[in-house]
Amino acid sequence: MSVLVYTEINKGQVKKSSLECVNYAAHIAKQLNLPVVALVNNTSGAPLTDIGNAGASKILQANNQAALSDNAIASELIENAAKSENAKVIIFAFDTSGKAIAPRAAAKLKAGLVAGAIDYPVINGTSFEIKKNVFSGKASAVYTILSEVKVISLLPNSFKTVLASNSAQIVDFNPSLTTPLRIKIKEIKSNDSGETAPLPEAELVVSAGRGLKGPENWGIIEELAKSLGATTACSRPVADMHWRPHHEHVGQTGLAIRPNLYIAIGISGAIQHLAGVNGSKTIVVINNDKEAPFFKSADYGIVGDAFSIVPKLIEEIKKFKANQN
Amino acid sequence: MKILVAISNVPDTTSKIQFTENDTKFNSAGVTYIINPYDEWYALVRALELKETGAATQVTILHVGLTDSEATIRKGLALGADDAVRVDADSSDAFFVAEQIANYAKTNNYELIMLGKETINYNGSSVGAAVAGLLDYPFISLATKLDANGKTLTFEQDVDGGSQIIECDLPLVVSAAKGMAEQRIPNMRGIMAARTKPLTIVAPTAAQALTSIKSFSLNPGRTTCKMITEDNIAELVTLLHIEAKVI
After folding, report:
1. Average predicted confidence (pLDDT) for chain A
2. Structurally, how many domains does chain B consist of?
3. CATH number, domain at B58?
4. How confident is the model at residue A324 (pLDDT cuts 50, 70, 90)?
5. B222, part of any domain
6. pLDDT in tens, A156-185
7. B70 within some domain
8. How far is CA B66 from the centre of its chain?
9. Sequence-separated (6 or more) residues with CB below 8 Å from residue B64
10. Domain limits for position B43
11. Do A142 and B213 form a contact (C-beta atoms < 8 A)?
12. pLDDT tier at B113, thresholds 50, 70, 90
């Protein structure tokens, strides 16, 4: 028996959300007195060391290109691992690929899934309870998983990753699969500048809205982000008017993010926007309208003109960073 | 090509969220219900466009729920769907709902199954991929564009770090995200026609819920916003470092 965790690689490194999952699996495994088995595809070397250091005692190393482009094949690979390792609990990240793969694998294994868990499960004998956000972050619900095998997908940025020295046994894992490759990738469009963390994984985010008046004014937003090492985001109207690219849009219809720090500049804080950011640990709102609803959902606020406040903030951050070094 | 669009009945985005019966049930008193926006604006509207261009022959709405969701189903018919089916069962477990959709689609030969990327009440993003798994169909997630050329469909979808253009043959399941279509408002003719369009009620297929909700709680909101004056921005940086510990 085991706790199985599905991990992924991005640009040669284990995804941050995957390391969180391995840590999380290790926590559950300790309670159940079971080993942590990690499944990883298409990598070797340093990432395997990281997965071991995050708490896996065994790593199943697959080499399957088709599973990278078709989630049905990735799912079959995991179903195989779940059976061969007699997995009692299976952990995924609740990210783009985890959302496509985890429900499929769970349905195939007839295992109950809690998608977007925010806490460790409470396990008492056969009772297995786990908490997740509902109503777009306005509430949470405690779910009971009724099946024998439990599947959990973990909301990214819910836990800090801890790495400790630990070496894992590495085993080749290439079972014969029956699912044909049916999804053909014709073109990949990257919007990854490589300079900052991708938005779903970013710990610091600087976001701006219509209050900036036009795309030509984003220089100060980018400069503020750069001074902090933050990733930039925007509100829906800004993306709809093509002032900023679609992939920067956070909110109900865009990305839901939960960074440590979210700085919102010139965004009024409509309920749909809050739905995408209210999981942030700390929220700073800068707005010239003291009645802006966003102040009710913020930790720190400054009322005033962004065009005079932001340059001052950049200056103070630079001073702070200089003192830190 | 026959299209099955699965819709969910959810509280309006601006609804006050409250619970009842010792925090075990959502309190629907005074709440307006709508078609889950992702199911409506993106999946259903794109399905209707495919019918208008001749790529699809029929658009059916499928809903798993009880009698109180009929107004929501009629709205979908008013937007232009040909007919609707309600599977008469409570819809709280994603796996149970997926079993119902998969069973209906298979029995009635739907080749394209469309739904939104998530519901705004449970936010699980689970039903589409589970339906695809149960039917052994491919699953296209987070599609922002969908075009049909005979049996081959082309999609653009969001992936980590960007987007990609992919091709896949029918049958398949797709989850729709922003960009696939634009919201429509039903017109008077549509609303009148919806009253007489077929709405079939079917009994659920046998399936076991694999999860249940034990209790709900409201997430604590932020209680106080500390206001900082423009001439004292250094204080904000100190607070972020010392108090919030985020920089």
Report:
1. 96
2. 1
3. 3.40.50.620
4. confident
5. no
6. 988 889 999 999 999 999 999 999 999 999
7. yes
8. 17
9. B6, B86, B87, B89, B91, B96, B97, B100, B101, B204
10. 2-215
11. yes
12. very high
The minimum CA-CA distance between A321 and chain B, rounded to whole Å, is 9
What residues form DSSP beta bridges with A9? A14
- The nearest CA of chain A is from the CA of B125 a distance in Å of 6
> A91-142: per-residue pLDDT in tens?
999 999 999 999 999 999 999 999 999 999 999 999 999 999 999 999 999 9
Kindly give the pairing relationship between strand A139-145 and strand B211-218.
antiparallel
Residue B133 is assigned to a structural domain of this protein: yes
Q: What is the mean pLDDT of residues B189-205?
A: 97
Contact B209, B177 (CB under 8 A): no
| Cβ-proximal residues to A193 (8 Å cutoff; 6+ apart), any chain | none
When pLDDT is averaged across residues A39-58 and rounded to a whole number, the result is 97
**DSSP letter assigned to residue B69:** G
* CB nearest to A135's CB, from B17, B172, B246: B17
Residue to mutate among B127, B154, B225, B242, with most A CBs inside 10 A, is: B225
* Segment B144-158, tens digit of pLDDT: 999 999 999 999 998
Residue of B219, B239, B243 to mutate, interface with A, max A Cβ within 10 Å: B219
Cα(A233)–Cα(A239) distance, rounded to whole angstroms? 10
- Does the beta carbon of A43 lie under 8 angstroms from any beta carbon of chain B? no
* CA dihedral for B119, B121, B123, B126, sign (positive or negative): negative
**Would you call B95 helix, strand, or coil by DSSP?**
helix
In a domain, B106, yes or no: yes
Give the pair of three-digit tokens for residue B189. 């003719």
Query: E strand or H helix at A29, and its extent?
Result: helix A16-32
Judge: A252–B219 Cβ closer than 8 Å, yes or no: no
ipTM of this complex > 0.90?
A: yes
Number of CB pairs < 8 Å for A and B? 273
